[in-house]
Request: fold
Amino acid sequence: MPFSSEARRDHHPGVRSAYEHMARRNPDEPEFQQAVLEVLDDLSPALTRHPEYAEQRILERLCEPERQLMFRVPWRDDQGQVHINRGFRVEFNSALGPYKGGLRFHPSVDLGVIKFLGFEQIFKNALTGMNIGGGKGGSDFDPKGRSDAEIERFCQSFMTELHRHLGEHTDVPAGDIGVGAREIGYLFGQYRRLANRWEAGVITGKGLEWGGSRVRTEATGYGSVLFTQRMLERVGKALDGQRVVVSGSGNVAIYSVEKAQHLGATVVACSDSAGYVVDDKGLDLDLLKQIKEVERERISVYAERRVGARYVEGGSVWDVPCDVALPSATQNELDADAARVLVRNGVIAVAEGANMPTTPEAVQVLREAKVLFGPGKAANAGGVATSVLEMRQNARRTSWSFQHAESELAETMSDIHDRCEEAAERYGAPGDYVLGANVAGFERVASAMLAQGLI
Ligand code: GLU
Reply:
């Protein structure tokens, strides 16, 4: 894969050689290569200012995970048939704190996908200003259509191997696609049994009765909308009265809809992998939650039950005209064609609720059209930041109110916004949140790595 912005920038030789080194060593991992490229593309000026980064091979070290675990996950379905899945945990970088990042259960998961997510997580976590390193894990297990008992057995088998690698000061997983409150419960239960320790700080996203934090469920979606609001404020606008389209209908999407509605926006569409729904009056959030969280049904059911809503099978949710677009489903879901449609329809802001949902070509289209663009590392960091709030409450054996947790989240999102803005300005690209996020996250990890010696 060539550098995406070859024509725009001359790359520092250290950047070029680190990228080539990584690409050679990880030839069959396109998502990982893409994630690395998206960061490295913006780092040349930082390497020019800090020759010690290249001397100490900080980029090469960053691209090589500290540890990669791959393991067998055998389990039995309700019919008694045996299945074998593959489990992963990539412990990418712990210079700033214990490895922190979610677990994804989805058939698309492979080592390259987990590495892309783990790599992104390093910079995202650094941007929060908190002491967490980057890691990610998961399995190619497909939870769709599986019974509760099957999910429970799978989670127990998965944790039977993973538990020996975890610890509140070592590695602290959480949820991601396919891993929500139910799965976290089964995972924590099995950890507790095997470790013979009630160690709340070993996993986040726990239930409120047993060490969870208020607002953790809502945090990623709320955070991405709060980030969007801050970007809009900077140019004298607000979410109030805007028409919003969200992609996906999982945890991030649902709570993005909720927060956008709180702030006065009308959210007119959301989607799943089969199609999208359009509801010009504004999505009925209670109905959406009932269908997705309680019944675990497809989004098409929404249109069957809501007068005036329509379902479009297949197609692109980005065809629905909007002022603000919040890609909140999965990687590479918004391509250059979709970005052009958004621009043509007058979009003013795009913020990534998911990890790397916008292709590099689409980012380029949006950047050139001067659309406000919040990259996932910054915009969706509210989830992991609230995981740290959960760890703080666990350490103090306390539990905060919803208002308190939400105000901490809002402050964190505002700080992340300001860190990106400040770094972008410092590097001569005011308003470029992609560059700002990459540079600010990188500087924090790189200086910790330098300080801690060659490890
Ligand atoms: N999976 C989420 C993310 O992508 C949350 C991770 C966490 O809370 O540790 O950041």
